[in-house]
Design goal:
- By secondary structure, this protein is α/β, with parallel strands linked by helices.
- About 50% of the residues lie in helices and about 15% in strands.
- The strands form two sheets. Strands 1, 4, 5, 6, 7 and 8 form a six-stranded parallel sheet that branches. It has a two-stranded antiparallel ribbon with strand order 2-3.
- α2 packs across α6.
- It is globular and about 40 Å long.
Length: about 240
């Protein structure tokens, strides 16, 4: 009888040990699963936040540009301001703007005026000279919507007589870029930026002007994509 009671006690204790062990393992498994789920949730949240941040950075970039090709009222074949880019005729500054957009995801904005600029190269040079002499301010017919949403403004223009086209003076007269970052890019026929970056600094004294702008000879615009990619990477955009 004593032995029977003893064996019953041993059996009950064994069952209790297995029961407790099973509970402990279940609790550990639940803890591991909870930790795994929590980690996955954190990673998913971090990924979503990163993607959202990247999207917001792209959405706050505006690429504003002036090109005669979109202000002359003629087709590509008869305009002196076009370049062949991958078999397609494009205004030179527009072509550069598209290359910048490909690297940054920014939004494009074409500066357009009521002036119909000459398509012929010689006539255009003479017209630009007269505009500068008159210190003209061509009327703008395109306007930036929701300027406050943009923090970074790429600004593109050709170099005419060692200066920006007068349409760009109208552009800077119209907008206050205080607190924003302005990044110039241009095409030229040997004079690069001349003093145009300094001029932009004078016109927009409360903006941050990046002096490391992108400039390219108009004859090399069609091959500028790789150089622009390197430039954008250097700027960190």
């Amino acid at each position: 009888m004593k032995y029977q009671i003893f064996y019953r006690i041993i059996a009950s204790a064994t069952v209790l040990v297995f029961a407790l062990t099973g509970c402990s393992q279940a609790e550990k498994s639940a803890d591991v699963k909870s930790t795994h789920d929590s980690t996955n949730t954190m990673k998913s949240t971090e990924k979503t936040d990163s993607e959202s941040s990247s999207s917001e950075e792209k959405n706050n970039i505006l690429i504003a540009y002036f090109t005669v090709a979109e202000n002359s009222g003629v087709d590509a074949a008869s305009s002196a301001s076009y370049s062949d880019v991958n078999g397609e005729e494009k205004g030179r500054i527009r072509a550069l703007a598209y290359m910048i957009q490909a690297e940054t995801g920014g939004e494009l904005f074409s500066v357009q005026t009521s002036v119909v600029y000459p398509a012929d190269g010689r006539e255009l040079i003479d017209y630009a000279d007269k505009e500068q002499s008159d210190n003209a301010r061509p009327e703008l017919t395109s306007h930036i919507e929701n300027l406050d949403t943009y923090d970074i403004i790429f600004v593109g223009y050709p170099n005419w007589w060692y200066d920006m086209p007068q349409a760009m003076y109208s552009f800077f007269d119209e907008y206050d870029f205080s607190g924003k970052t302005i990044i110039p890019f241009n095409s030229h026929n040997g004079s690069r930026f001349s003093d145009t970056i300094e001029t932009i600094q004078e016109l927009e004294p409360n903006a941050h002007i990046i002096t490391d702008g992108f400039t390219v000879n108009e004859r090399d615009v069609s091959d500028a994509a790789d150089d622009i990619a390197e430039w954008i990477d250097r700027l960190g955009y």
